Amino acid sequence: MSDLEITIFNQKLKLSYQENEKDRLINAVDVLNKSWNKFSSIQGKVSSQKIITLISLELQDSIREYKDELYSYKQNIDLLKKEIEEKSQLLKTTNEKLNTVKLETENKDREILKMKKALDEIHQELLQIKNNIFHLNK
Q1: Same domain flag for 23 and 66
Q2: Are residues 53 and 102 in the same domain?
């Protein structure tokens, strides 16, 4: 653990911290000191304890607002997840229908090819018959 000398509420303190928490600690102290400075107009008129209480109330209110905002974001994320799931299911259903139509189209194409082949054979037979008739009339 490391130690850090800082000033909170115009008082010097020595705090121990874990190396990975140094930035969080410094940020928290900055927030507290900014809050303290917001109440500079009443410093000396009321006790430091009352100012600290006001800061605590203000911070608690901010925490509540952030929690409410976070809850709202989570609800929006849940709604988006639900919408994505519905769209995904719709896409899956549409893909299944598309595959069915594709198979049907392939089957129809094979039938058309068979019919073309049969028509070509009939055409050839008709040409043969026509040639036979033509040769008979000569």
Answers
A1: no
A2: yes
3-class SS at 11? Answer: strand
Q: How far apart are CA 85 and CA 91, in angstroms?
A: 10
Give the pLDDT confidence of 74-117 residue by residue, as tens digits. 999 999 999 999 999 999 999 999 999 999 999 999 999 999 99
Give Cα 52 distance to the centre of its chain: 41
In a domain, 138, yes or no: no
* Whether 48 and 28 share a structural domain: no
Look at the chain and report how many structural domains it folds into. Answer: 2
Element containing residue 71 per DSSP (H, E): helix 48-136
Each residue of 10-56: pLDDT tens digit?
889 999 989 899 999 999 999 999 999 999 899 889 998 999 999 99
d(CA 138, CA 121): 26
119 pLDDT higher than 90? yes
Does residue 40 contact residue 20 with C-beta atoms inside 8 Å?
no
Q: Do 95 and 49 sit in the same domain of this protein?
A: yes
Rounded Cα distance between 113 and 59, Å, is 78
